[in-house]
């Protein structure tokens, strides 16, 4: 731990202390005891682990609040331009260690805890993850908040305080079961409830119109109203006093209960309103396959966006009164995917209906303050709301959207006036915001992505290839009209959580080598590790750290599965949401192939096999049957392999349950190899690939998403002779060939090894299931037609797996590469991403508390 302290002392740089709170171990100890006693009524003599955790957290929250208030005071005084990151998801994970380390208070807090009889790391595990997100998109939002705070950028996150976050995944008899994530039972010491910050949010009802002269006044008379109450979650920056804020909204009834009904003796319906109001923020993304589910999701989106915009406008008006033309100089709203897009209509509604601006002025302001990020081209994820649903819940907004659409189409008429008539009309139809459902022409839909593109000044993808693809596919026509609107912002991840705090030994070694901890906020400095890749002594230390991290993961595997694994084996990892396009199935096929190969070997031949421990983890959406089949297959194949005495010393396969941020923090630092094997053109970016690279895990992947840019950086650090792909294990078809290959898949001649494995699965070799639907999805052209081209990539995938084995046998080279991975990972810090957003989209400048 001493080494770790050395990078906590801020390089001797002095900085102004705004914090008055003493932080010596004795004071912290007595402070924590006071919290235990006064906040939770605990007994000083019997501080349970939970009480100790809570006491500590409450104490830390005071530090955070002090800093947050100083930050907000400065920002209020200077009135800089702010960015508001609107996101239905923030996948924050745990806060305790992240806070302590960001505030550079590790030593006194660890000591204070020792006095209480606890170890800080052990205690940290008492905290429930804040899992207010599904996957990459939600975690990206969390990394962005970290970067914004660290870089002193004036900005807040705005989202939903779900009572139940991402479900807990339990595996029962090989099958995924979803259990509600009851994360708030013990309270949440990291948030501050703000009963003073409340806004009404309305739904339903009808419109009343009065015409005076040429002016039409529209009044929305809703038939349902709830209250949005704020919770503030302070976001510590690293190596700065600045502390950001994530404001999450909870939905409450306007009246605790209906007194009328109560008095009439109808006790049950007296509580109805309460239940209905609270349902809005109760669960993260409820199943949207039923109309009720759909309606609730739209309500969630409108709920948090409306509260956020009202909040921002209220603060703006305090300073600038009604000078709304100044708004674009003071505020920018980043839409994290289409989920908050209804904000575009809400802004028009607030400016026109509430503030009395005329349409042109309101629309002009609106298009100057919104910017939109797209995260996927998967059609099922591109939100389209039935006009019927939208009109029922948001009649005024539906009307506003129709007006926007009419004006948009009129604009296109003019803009495309050179085009032949039929062609022009087709283009206009393709770009319409409100259009018929392609499967049911009777039904009209609001295309939220189209609304977002029309209403925003900038549209960006999340990796270069993805930004290029959206310009030539889903937004092709729009790109033709507004070429300059489109940008790329390659994703990034916070090196603090994903390297410095989750892999402290590696961070210490890096700091020792570079002689500074500057790299933690200036990741390009990691390039300084390059010469160390050639230093045998350093490589030894590097391997020792990896080995220790593998011991830690080994212990976790034992805890979760009861099995011991050999930590000298290669740890081969694939962790991400389970989805057909991410191709966990392909991974399992190669594990089966490996199993077959080992089975066919003589004992002598087996001596040359590279032992592997394969780990897969991730959640499947509750209604996604094919993804759930994949989980069952991993379990069944794992059971066969892990209990086979001829094979289990050379190969293991585990599915680790309940993948979340905290589990990722243990897995990633321990990976030797990580797999990012989506069909080229399907994964927008990926972000775990960046986390693995930072932690020196070699990458086996396709030329997809950010893998491509990772490969470019790894090539660049090797010098001018290296080609993109050198140093990684790359395989698979090219994104540009995918459409053609899909058409030709029927004629594709599958590899004999593929056929053999399919037969094995179908025969019921693994468990008592034959996985028919799953097998058909990649073989039977009448059912599944192998949309993600597993068969096409199968043979090259096996070849590249052989290359992996060969490379592993040359450990010097393997470790050399591992060091070069970390050395070349600087680009993928979220600090870089955020500074590009700040400069190229938001026009927001840092403002640091002195
Ligand atoms: C992910 N999207 C992309 N969506 O798949 C990934 O390539 C990218 O790196 C990441 O965003 C960040 O840009 C993603 O995570 C979701 O989780 C949706 C949320 C709403 C429900 C459907 C899934």
Automatic annotation (TrEMBL):
Modified residues (N6-(pyridoxal phosphate)lysine): 691
CC per GO annotation: cytoplasm
Domain of life: Eukaryota
Its job: Allosteric enzyme that catalyzes the rate-limiting step in glycogen catabolism, the phosphorolytic cleavage of glycogen to produce glucose-1-phosphate, and plays a central role in maintaining cellular and organismal glucose homeostasis.
PROSITE patterns per record: PHOSPHORYLASE
Leading EC class: transferase
Cofactors (names): pyridoxal 5'-phosphate
Protein name, per record: Alpha-1,4 glucan phosphorylase
Catalytic activity: [(1->4)-alpha-D-glucosyl](n) + phosphate = [(1->4)-alpha-D-glucosyl](n-1) + alpha-D-glucose 1-phosphate
PANTHER family for the chain: ALPHA-1,4 GLUCAN PHOSPHORYLASE, GLYCOGEN PHOSPHORYLASE
Keyword Mitochondrion attributed: no
InterPro entries listed in its UniProt record: Glycg_phsphrylas, Glyco_trans_35, Pyridoxal_P_attach_site
The keyword Phosphoprotein is assigned to this record: yes
Keywords in alphabetical order: Allosteric enzyme, Carbohydrate metabolism, Glycosyltransferase, Phosphoprotein, Pyridoxal phosphate, Transferase
């Amino acid at each position: 731990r001493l080494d770790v302290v050395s990078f906590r002392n801020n390089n001797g740089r002095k900085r102004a202390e705004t914090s008055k709170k003493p932080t010596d171990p004795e004071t912290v100890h007595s402070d924590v005891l006071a919290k235990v006693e006064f906040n939770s009524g605990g007994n000083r003599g019997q501080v349970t682990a939970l009480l100790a955790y809570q006491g500590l957290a409450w104490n830390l929250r005071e530090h955070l609040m002090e800093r947050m208030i100083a930050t907000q005071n400065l920002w209020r005084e200077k009135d800089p331009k702010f960015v508001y990151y609107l996101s239905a998801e923030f996948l924050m994970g745990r806060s305790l260690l992240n806070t302590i380390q960001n505030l550079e208070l590790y030593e006194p807090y660890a000591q204070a805890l020792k006095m209480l009889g606890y170890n800080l790391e052990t205690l940290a595990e008492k905290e429930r993850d804040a899992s207010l997100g599904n996957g990459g998109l939600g975690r990206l939002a969390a990394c962005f908040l970290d970067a914004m705070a660290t870089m002193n950028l004036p900005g807040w996150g705005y989202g939903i305080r779900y009572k139940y976050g991402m479900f807990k995944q339990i595996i029962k008899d090989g099958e995924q079961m979803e259990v509600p994530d009851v994360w708030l039972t013990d309270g949440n010491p990291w948030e501050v409830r703000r009963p003073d910050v409340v806004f009404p949010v309305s739904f339903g009802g009808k419109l009343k119109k009065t015409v005076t002269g040429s002016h039409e006044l529209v009044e929305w008379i809703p038939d349902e109203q709830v209250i949005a109450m704020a919770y503030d979650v302070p976001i510590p920056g690293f190596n700065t006093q600045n502390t950001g804020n994530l404001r999450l909204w909870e939905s409450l009834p306007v009246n605790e209960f209906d007194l009328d009904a109560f008095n009439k003796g109808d006790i049950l319906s007296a509580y109805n309103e309460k239940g209905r109001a609270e349902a809005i923020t109760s669960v993260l993304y409820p199943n949207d396959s039923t109309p009720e589910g759909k309606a609730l999701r739209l309500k969630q989106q409108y709920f948090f966006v409306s509260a956020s915009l009202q909040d921002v406008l209220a603060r703006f008006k305090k300073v600038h009164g009604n000078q709304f033309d100044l708004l674009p100089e003071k505020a920018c709203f980043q839409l994290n995917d289409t989920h908050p897009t209804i904000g575009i209509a809400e802004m028009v509604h607030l400016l026109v209906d509430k503030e009395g601006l005329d349409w042109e002025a309101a629309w002009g302001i609106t298009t100057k303050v919104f910017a939109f990020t797209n995260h996927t081209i998967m059609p099922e994820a591109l939100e389209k709301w039935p006009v019927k649903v939208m009109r029922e819940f948001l009649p005024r907004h539906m009307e506003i959207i129709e007006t926007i659409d009419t004006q948009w189409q009129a604009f296109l008429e003019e803009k495309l006036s050179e085009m032949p008539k039929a062609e022009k009309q087709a283009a206009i139809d393709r770009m319409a915001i409100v259009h018929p459902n392609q499967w049911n022409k009777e039904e009209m839909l609001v295309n939220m992505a189209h609304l977002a593109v029309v209403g925003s000044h900038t549209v960006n993808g999340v990796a270069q290839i993805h930004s290029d693809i959206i310009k030539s596919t889903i937004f092709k026509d729009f790109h033709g009209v507004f070429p300059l609107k489109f940008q790329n912002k390659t994703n990034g991840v916070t090196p603090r959580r994903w390297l410095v705090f989750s892999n402290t030994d590696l961070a210490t070694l890096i700091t020792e080598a570079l002689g500074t901890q500057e790299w933690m906020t200036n990741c390009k400095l990691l390039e300084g590790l390059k010469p160390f890749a050639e230093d045998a002594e350093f490589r030894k230390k590097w391997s020792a750290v990896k080995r220790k991290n593998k011991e830690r993961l080994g212990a976790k595997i034992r805890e979760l599965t009861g099995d011991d694994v050999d930590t000298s084996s290669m740890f081969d990892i694939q962790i991400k949401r389970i989805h057909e396009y991410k191709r966990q199935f392909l991974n399992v096929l190669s594990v089966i192939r490996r199993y077959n190969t080992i089975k066919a070997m003589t004992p002598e031949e087996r001596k040359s096999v590279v032992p592997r421990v394969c780990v897969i983890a991730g959640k499947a959406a509750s209604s996604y049957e094919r993804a759930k089949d994949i989980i069952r297959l991993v379990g069944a194949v794992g059971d066969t392999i892990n209990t086979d005495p001829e094979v289990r010393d050379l190969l293991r396969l585990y599915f680790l349950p309940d993948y979340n941020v905290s589990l990722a923090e243990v897995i990633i630092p321990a990976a030797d190899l990580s797999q990012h094997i989506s069909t080229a053109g399907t994964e927008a970016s990926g972000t775990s690939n960046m986390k693995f690279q930072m932690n020196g895990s070699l990458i086996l992947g396709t030329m997809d998403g950010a893998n491509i840019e990772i490969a470019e950086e790894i090539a660049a650090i090797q010098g001018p002779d290296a080609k993109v792909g050198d140093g990684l294990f790359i395989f698979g078809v090219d994104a540009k060939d995918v459409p053609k290959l899909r058409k030709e898949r029927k004629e594709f001649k599958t590899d004999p090894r593929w056929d053999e494995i399919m037969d094995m699965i179908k025969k019921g070799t693994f468990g008592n299931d034959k996985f028919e639907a799953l097998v058909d999805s990649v073989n039977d052209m009448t059912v599944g037609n192998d949309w993600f081209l597993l068969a096409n990539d199968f043979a090259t995938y096996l070849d590249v797996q052989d290359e992996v084995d060969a490379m592993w046998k040359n450990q010097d080279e393997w470790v050399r590469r591992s060091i070069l991975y970390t050395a070349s990972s600087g680009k993928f810090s979220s600090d870089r991403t955020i500074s590009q957003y700040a400069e190229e989209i938001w026009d927001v400048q840092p403002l640091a508390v002195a």
